[in-house]
Amino acid sequence: MSRFILHCDLDCFFAAVEERDNPEYIGKPIIIGADPKDGKGRGVVSTCNYEARKFGLHSAMPISQAYKRCPHGTYLHPNFEKYHRASKEVMEIVNSYSDKFQQVSIDEAYLDVSDKCINFKEVRDLAEKLKDEVQKNIGITISVGCAPTKSIAKIASDYNKPNGITIVEENHIKDFLKNLDITRIPGIGKKSKLYYNKKGIKTIGDIIDLTLPKMIQLFGKNGEWVWNVANGFDTREVKNFHADRKSISKERTFYEDTNDLNLILSKLEEINKRIHKNVIKNKIYYKTVTLKIRLEGFITFTRSKSFIHHVQDENQVLKVIIELLNQFSTVNKKVRLVGIRLSKLEKAPSVAQTTLLSYLEA
Ligand code: TTP
Ligand code: MG
């Protein structure tokens, strides 16, 4: 029996929230990210609306380049608190359509509705209802893809953006994928594209035409995964938050590289707080804390420390983070990104070590 998996992804999310709250922006190019400072600014575009995309702007583009292409755009500093609130409200709606719900980023989630629908007509009705509910209640639009696998559902949600629904029935997978560029496959970026192109592979159809052994011979393990995706052989389930989860992590990129220790610490405190909202809600305990720091020039370091027992304790984690951060303080470079990862997870252990009882293993 075919599975009905939905992938829901908000359209130009941060920019959409700004348009909702400032209707005078609608129809104009809006860019969220670093301050362009008349073209001299550093940092990147976080996202931009579809009006701005007409000028070639996109996420992660240096803000100076964006400004060159679109000097008349409206440039806004991100308001993360507002976006997190909107995300939470949207995800509550999406989750109300099925318990088999997996949020994978601030603006995207998978939903398995195989138990709720008996055919694609019902899936479409459900997707339309979900979209309407998000638009009416939150005031922003979401695109939905539906397919028998997670990877094809993700490709489908992106296919008809913004505000689209794309349904790929089991016996239409090949027709849907065959003319799409290989970069539509999640994980094939600009660099891999060049590599694939060199071997004569441009479309997903070119991949489907190869045998699995040939793909493995040409591209190794990655080739095997890509071939499976292209042929609709992705058996991954929609997992609820904690099922089989190895770690929980969050990271943030600074809008401008910084060596301001207070700023770095307050960012880490914010990340720690957010992670703990999740772990508390999902009754998750952890043993290992990892601090990740990326310096300018993309050199990345990680340092970890483990508790003897599983704990769930925001203050203890912060202490560990400060301790680990001190190990970096002699580095004379600016910081680009910081992150925290909690691993060795356990769900509601028999003996929960909290606050004073938790102690460290060197
Ligand atoms: P995306 O879903 O990748 O992008 P989007 O929602 O802005 O646009 P689309 O309609 O194509 O889905 O990311 C969701 C949000 O995450 C985005 O609004 C801003 C943030 N983001 C960044 O801050 N930096 C990035 O490099 C990317 C890709 C996203
Ligand atoms: Mg999005």
Strand fraction: 15-25%
The gyration radius over C-alpha positions equals: 22 Å
Report, as a whole number of angstroms, the end-to-end distance.
52 Å
Number of strands: 14
- Measured as a percent range, the helix fraction is 25-40%
Structural class, from secondary structure content?
alpha+beta
- The succession of helices and strands, N to C, reads EHEEHHEHEEHEHEHHHHEHEEHEEE
User: Ligands bound here?
Assistant: thymidine-5'-triphosphate, magnesium ion
Please identify which CATH superfamily of the domain at 246-361 we are dealing with.
Answer: DNA polymerase, Y-family, little finger domain
Question: What are the low-pLDDT stretches, counting only 5+ consecutive residues below 50?
Answer: 349-362
**What is the helix tally?**
12
CATH architectural name of the domain at 246-361 = 2-Layer Sandwich
The first-level CATH class of the domain at 246-361 is given as Alpha Beta
Mean pLDDT: 91
Q: Report the biggest beta sheet as strand number plus sense, adding barrel if it closes.
A: 6 strands, antiparallel
CATH topology value of the domain at 246-361? Dna Ligase, domain 1
* Shape descriptor: globular
